[in-house]
Amino acid sequence: MAAKKAKATNTVALSKDQFKDAIVKHLRSTCGTDEARANNQAWWKATCAAVNELVFDRLTETSKANADKDSRAVHYLSLEFLMGRLTVNNMHNVGVFGAARDALADLGKDVNDICDEEPDMALGNGGLGRLAACFIDSLATLNYPAVGYGIHYEHGLFRQEIQGGRQIERPDSWREYGNPWEICRPESIQEVPLYGYVETVFGEDGKMRKVWHAGRQIKGVPWDIPVVGYEAKTVNVLRLWESKAADFFDWDVFNAGGYIDSQSEKSQAEAVSKVLYPNDESEAGKELRLIQQYFFCACSLKDIIRRYKRNHSDFSQFSKQAVIQLNDTHPTVAIPELMRILIDEEGLVWDDAWKICTETFAYTNHTLLPEALEKWAVYLFEKVLPRHLEIIYEINRRFLEDEVEAKWPGNDEMKRHLSIIEEGETRMVRMAYLCVVTCFKTNGVAAMHSELVKEDLFPEFYELWPERFVNVTNGVTPRRWLLACNEQLANMYNETVGTDWPRKLDELKGAAKFADDAKFQKNFMAIKREKKVELADKIEELCGIKVSPDAMFNVLIKRLHEYKRQHLALLHILALYRRLLENPDYDMGPQVFIFGSKAAPGYKLAKDIIYAINKVADKVNNDPRIKDKLKVVFMPNYRVTLAEKLFPAGDVSLQISTAGYEASGTGNMKFALNGALTLGTMDGANVEIREEVGDENIFIFGMDCDEVKALKAAGYNPWDYYYGNPELKAVLDWLETDFFTPGAPGELASIKHSLLEGGDPYLVLADFESFTTQYTAVDVAYRDQKKWAKMAIINSASVGKFNSDRSIEDYVDRIWKLEKVMPN
Ligand code: GL7
């Protein structure tokens, strides 16, 4: 096995001594210091530079091979890439982690301390952005030609501080002191027009043309982040655009003494890539956000076309060479932009341009939440992108008059219903409709979600074009989410099933036959305990709370949203606390509830829920009466780096969204892979996890999607549940007292009100009883450690399907039709 691993990497990897020399060299030549004076930051940068010697060579080789072969490539357009840290992952992928660790140790440094210097690259909000990061890792690992395109935000997702139990948002500055992984490419700068008006002109040939006279130009500067495939020769690129003023400096204004004025254009232009919008699953609805979307689509399309033109003199082969995947509707404006380029700049006729667009674009839907389905006011489009609005109108006219009319003749109501333009007081562009009308494929992200996309979200479009709708179940990269974050379990698997599993995750299945083996169970649970000890230390360091690694760790980590139902878990905690107070001998094993979550800054109730968790935690953790049987922890600033500590340490993975609302989830996959048992609803990918691990190795509770729909249709009344369950009533009423907020009654009341007067839109009260009942079963199961070990092993060994490499192969097979270019 060891020989096999060496063979895969020894052509390029460095030995420990070579690595040591490289670090020392870079301390001097790259960082301008030496071993005696360098601080950890310099050691980190020198280490990255040493890794980059391998990475950059492969990057150049990959792009040369792609150019030489003129290969078809996927262009993954995403407003978010939640990369986290890159150093450890890149070391693993390039095959030098061991050499680097040993080299640093020889130099008196601990690899973990050095890698801890790296700030998270948090250019995303949550699951959607992290999925994009996993996908580009898999694309490189599988040697597929691919480019990720996004925005080089100066500030990523805000840093969360907790003060007095409340969330405070602080700016994130991930590249304040430079980032060794990115390369600026001034040779590929693009200009982006904005605002202005459209003129109709007639050429000498009598043909009509449209000319967009832009009111402003901004510049897009590309920054490339290498994306290293695991034990693969491919290094792809994530290209992120930074906005700059087109004329960097207005000298006339400056010379006339107007320094401030000359700076204002600069700062306006730079505002475009300044911050990531922190809204998760809700529409941002701001002019700047539309400009962000257009800015990165325009830059990316110009880049794609520039590359295409190196080998082609017309557009006849364009859709054979390029497939563009729209990661949700955020990059939809790329559609009218490509039409504009082809017609206005390249001189194609409408039908030819349209054919190219419909063969080039594909769209992934990531949510059914109505508030997350983007709509842009027509007047805003008219102001910022006047030519694009004309194009959208024309796409819509042809769609309604040709396709809708043919299918539903004379049906004006249907035309109104399916129109890309929504009529009303403020006319709106429905971006998802524009996607479905244009794209050759529309996919959902889990089997159940893809069915709902067809049945509930786009039923008429599905009737029109059933062949366009496909499913691609999400996945996660096992390199980051097992190999790099859980070295102990990774090593155990190396010894049990060999070392191919980081690519072929199905191989873990080989470990399932040891699920009953006492020795294997002991080792597996010892590793879990080790990861729990590590997490307990972190909890004490960050929160000052002592938790026992022998307690059951229940973990709920994801963005805060009512549909994700963190408050359902909170009500359950209150119920347990109450039971313990009423009966100190109440029979339960010691339990720790661990939350990690950011709330969108403007989402009041979400922030109230964070506050409530912290207030309940204060009380519960310091109540001697319950003898440490229950602990509640809210870990501040949940992000990829913290997630890497939490997933390996979880015993119970809470996936408790209202059925039908969580499109997929990906944390559910990371937990199962690391041996946690899911307590979840029949929602998103939970459904498929259950299929893989078996009904007896997962705890399902609550209503399924059909039951949710039926209850809503019948008229849901949360008061029935309030009056029907005395324990539920008691814990809800508790929130109104000052028990958790001494001297300030009512501070937690907004949660109760949202669940009663507010109508409880996500059916928290309806699922409460089933949740608490199932939790008792989880507690009982956990106390039988042999049984639990068996279930945990089966979970970890059975989730090979959720490798993001499999997702990518599905995309390639069903949508992208790519061929591998680099040899392995
Ligand atoms: C999301 C879904 O909510 C989540 O269930 C899914 O796993 C993820 C990736 O497909 O996409 N949709 C969405 O808008 N966000 C998500 O995380 C922010």
UniProtKB/TrEMBL annotation:
Its cofactor is pyridoxal 5'-phosphate. SUPFAM superfamilies: UDP-Glycosyltransferase/glycogen phosphorylase (SSF53756). It holds the Pfam family Phosphorylase. InterPro entries: Glycg_phsphrylas (IPR011833), Glyco_trans_35 (IPR000811), Pyridoxal_P_attach_site (IPR035090). The keyword Oxidoreductase does not apply. It is an enzyme of class 2 (transferase). GO terms for molecular function: 1,4-alpha-oligoglucan phosphorylase activity. CDD domains: GT35_Glycogen_Phosphorylase. Keywords: Carbohydrate metabolism, Glycosyltransferase, Pyridoxal phosphate, Transferase. Its EC number is 2.4.1.1. It catalyses: [(1->4)-alpha-D-glucosyl](n) + phosphate = [(1->4)-alpha-D-glucosyl](n-1) + alpha-D-glucose 1-phosphate. Belongs to the glycogen phosphorylase family. PANTHER family: GLYCOGEN PHOSPHORYLASE, MALTODEXTRIN PHOSPHORYLASE. Phosphorylase is an important allosteric enzyme in carbohydrate metabolism. Enzymes from different sources differ in their regulatory mechanisms and in their natural substrates. However, all known phosphorylases share catalytic and structural properties. This is Alpha-1,4 glucan phosphorylase.
